[in-house]
Amino acid sequence: MNVALFITSFLFLRAQCAKILGVFAAPGYSQFILGEVLMTELAKRGHQITVISPYRPKDEPPNYKTILTKEVIGDTNGDDSLWNLESQSLFKNIMSTYDYENGITEKTLQNKEVQELLQSNEHFDLVIVEQFFNDALKGFSAHFKAPLVLFSSMGLTEWNREYMGVPMLPSMNAVSYTQYTNRMTFFQRIRNLYGTIFDYLYRRYFFYPVQRKFLAQYFPSSLDFDKILYNASLMLLNSHVTTSENTLLPYNMVEIGGFHVINKPLDKEIQTFLDGATDGAILFSLGSNLHSSDLSQDTRNAIFQVFAKLKQKILWKFETDLPDKPKNLFIAKWLKQRDILAHPNVKLFITHGGLLSTEEAIFNGVPMVGIPVFADQKMNMARAKSNGVASVVSFSKLSEETLFEAVNETLKNPSYRNNAKRLSSMIKDRPIQPLELAMYWIEYTMRHSGMTFKPSSLYLYWFEMYMVDIACFLLINSLVVFLVIFGLMRICKSKKSDKQKKQ
Ligand SMILES: *[C@@H]1O[C@H](CO)[C@@H](O)[C@H](O)[C@H]1NC(C)=O
Ligand SMILES: *[C@@H]1O[C@H](CO)[C@@H](O)[C@H](O)[C@H]1NC(C)=O
Fold this sequence. Notes:
It catalyses: glucuronate acceptor + UDP-alpha-D-glucuronate = acceptor beta-D-glucuronoside + UDP + H(+). Keywords: Glycosyltransferase, Membrane, Signal, Transferase, Transmembrane, Transmembrane helix. The protein is of the alpha/beta class. The protein has helices at about 5-15, 30-45, 90-110, 110-120, 140-145, 160-165, 185-220, 225-230, 270-275, 295-310, 335-340, 355-365, 375-385, 400-410, 415-430, 435-445, 460-465, 470-500, and strands spanning about 20-25, 50-55, 65-70, 125-130, 150, 235, 255, 280-285, 315, 330, 345-350, 370, 390. The protein is globular, with a radius of gyration of 27 Å. It starts with a helix and ends with a helix. One 2-acetamido-2-deoxy-beta-D-glucopyranose binds near residues 142, 147, 231 and 452.
């Protein structure tokens, strides 16, 4: 056999059955679902999978091992209720997220089994990390000398831009915690500029020092934080133009939004309930982090009053029992949201506007009423609203009137449903299905043992990239030229007047 052919087939076989470490450390269950779909799919393809995560997959394949870090679950944001985050300022939002996630990173690295793994002689061909305010965890890639693939559950964000070398222009890239789309008014652009600068400075001078310390403290090998920060070969983004916006991406940032929407048959009880919803059905869910049972009595009553006025049947994800619930209401602790949204009788989704929920609604062509509270929810809903698939009610203004108005408008005005159907057909119409695309790129990265084509922006300081140095240089140059000309003119003038005086 020809040597080159031998080597290629050897490399190919190695990529065919590789050892892959996944690090999905975030305590949010919806983020875990994304990791679960990606990593179990890799297991199905025959790879040996190890995943560090606070949850386990429902059906763990035999070649899939979980290192469980469940101690990260249940940490609150230092605040008793996530609901309070709704009214937090942009700056406070940025700071509290970084500080909170520092705690998660440390707990993950302190885990006994994680430490055992780091002390072992284990070998990995690839490390996949969920990029989520946890940069020290990129150390797994450098420690095991394996290429790094990042996965962003939030799509393209200001920090992801930095790691992959995509310039962040505050004029057209809204910060994740704003309620803006990328098309901003003058005053929104000013606030967005403040947000961008504040986020950059806080990350650099308050967040990185802590992550740098974790890297030195918890990894047995000595690793260079500044090098691992920008060393990902590939970043997979949980986004698609229909759920986010049209933006510029380098070749190694790949959008796979919608990859987790794999609809399964419904439980019999819910199937019967929805089949019987001849006037349509509404799904009400505030996601896995926010608890409907924590809503104040007033808010809960307002929601009940709205439901009582509707002829549609309603499914509500509610964590406790409700003795005095209206007749058209079905409650359950956990609802299979993806599958329910796929039922043709579901006409509306009342949601907190998390990215997964938004994607699932758009995938299934269901219009939304958004009640966004924190993180990227306001932005997701602003985008959905500008695409004409959602009405938005601010949580602080939630009342019987505002909610009913939004629900009625979204149900009665056919444009919402039509737009949702249009986006649904677009997100499904792809040259290659997104989960398949993700697999292709992950295996591609292994076949080429990490890609090293870095964009030039990663070699420049920010003031070089935004041409501040050139602007200063040109300004000083013009100033010098101006001063020289001005000086010469003064000299000439004084000589002339000297001559005149002498005459
Ligand atoms: C960066 O990634 C490349 C390609 O995977 C790898 O060869 C190199 O060792 C990595 N460097 C660090 C500091 O992790
Ligand atoms: C419900 O919405 C429709 C269509 O926008 C509107 O014509 C109607 O007046 C609304 N009904 C109420 C009670 O607000």
